[in-house]
Amino acid sequence: MDATGDTTTTTPRLGRYTIDTAKSSISFKSRHLFGLLPVRGTFAIRGGTVEVAEPVSGSRVHAEVDAASFRTNHARRDAAVRSVAFLDTDRHPLITFAADHVDTTTVSGTLTACGLSRPADLSIVRSEVLADAFTVRATTRVDRTAFGVTAARGMAGRHLNLTLEIRCVRS
């Protein structure tokens, strides 16, 4: 958790942090219409915690995302993605990430969506550490078919490029 854009390294103080959902976001980019058009959207973070340990590799992260918060500002598409054909948010209301390894550039763990769990690595691209808080920007690429979301092949992009901006406050 010490990567910054200017190569300065800092580590948050040891201890437990809570994700500040009001100051955190997940945005994504994908393609649709046979890959011709871009799609941008967001998910809302429901909550989570970060345990900063020494060494930092022993740190832990747990985050919950509200699956029904999927938004692209296209009401019909958003409703379709929340439906049983895609995310099935009535049966699977949460998307979770649990990290079991952290280093200066990567947070590795398990992403669970639609009832399926897969390994996932978040690449830390920027961090800012304050006395009792820190913010991390991380990116990852998710293959929706790995989570059983296979509807509309060709029409809907297979991959989502996620950018996470996570603000954590010391608990």
Any chance you could write out the topology, listing elements then pairs?
Layout: E1 15-19, E2 25-32, E3 37-52, E4 60-71, H1 75-82, E5 94-102, E6 106-113, E7 116-129, E8 133-143, E9 159-170
Antiparallel strand pairs: 1-3, 1-9, 2-3, 2-9, 3-4, 4-5, 5-6, 6-7, 7-8, 8-9
Describe the structure.
The chain is built from one helix and nine strands. With 171 residues, the protein is mainly β. The protein has one domain (15-170): Lipocalin (Beta Barrel). Strands 1, 2, 3, 4, 5, 6, 7, 8 and 9 form a nine-stranded antiparallel beta sheet that branches. The longest helix has 8 residues, at 75-82. The radius of gyration is 16 Å and the shape is elongated.
What are its keywords?
single chain; 171 residues; mainly beta; Lipocalin; 9-stranded antiparallel beta sheet; 1 helix; 9 strands
Head-to-tail CA distance between termini: 18 Å
Known CATH architecture: Beta Barrel
Total number of distinct structural domains: 1
Secondary-structure element sequence?
Answer: EEEEHEEEEE
Tally of contiguous helical segments: 1
CATH homologous superfamily descriptor: Lipid/polyisoprenoid-binding, YceI-like
- Amount of beta strand: over 45%
Largest sheet: 9 strands, antiparallel
Helical content class: under 10%
Mean model confidence by pLDDT: 91
Using the coordinates shown, work out and report the CATH topology: Lipocalin
Class computed from helices, strands and strand pairing:
mainly beta
- Count of β-strands: 9
Low-confidence stretches: 2-9
- CATH C-level: Mainly Beta
**How large is the radius of gyration?**
16 Å
What overall form do the CA principal axes indicate? Answer: elongated
